[in-house]
Amino acid sequence: GVVYNYDQEGVHRAGSGWEQCISIPLVQPDMWELLQQWDDLLEEFSLEEAWLPHRYEEQQHNCYTFALAFVNRVRQGRGREALSKAQFTERFLIPHTREASRYLTLHQELAHRDFYIVPLPEQEQDS
């Protein structure tokens, strides 16, 4: 997909260059109508005056602010409470970064040791 980010040059849309990032699912699979609107909502949001380049401020009005403001806009549109930075970080970011950290640690251990992974018999038949 396309990644939106915000920095001192304004909002950027990138189809590549984010392969090393962590994707955090924010929309439940049963929210089909929201999934269909997501791209349009994000595009419309990204064009707002709040995200012009001159408004960028490294500590207080940055890419994290952009992402959280968008999430809160969607939440409020669905009648839900806005999240603070602390709530968003605790509820969404920390669990996924912990999981990614465990995965990366395991990957590093496997890469630096002599391991051979053998497929299970049912996996051999499927391929």
TrEMBL record:
Transmembrane segments: none annotated. Residues 1-110 form the MKRN2 opposite strand protein-like C-terminal domain. InterPro entries: MKRN2OS-like, MKRN2OS-like_C. PANTHER family: MKRN2 OPPOSITE STRAND PROTEIN. This is MKROS protein. The gene is Mkrn2os.
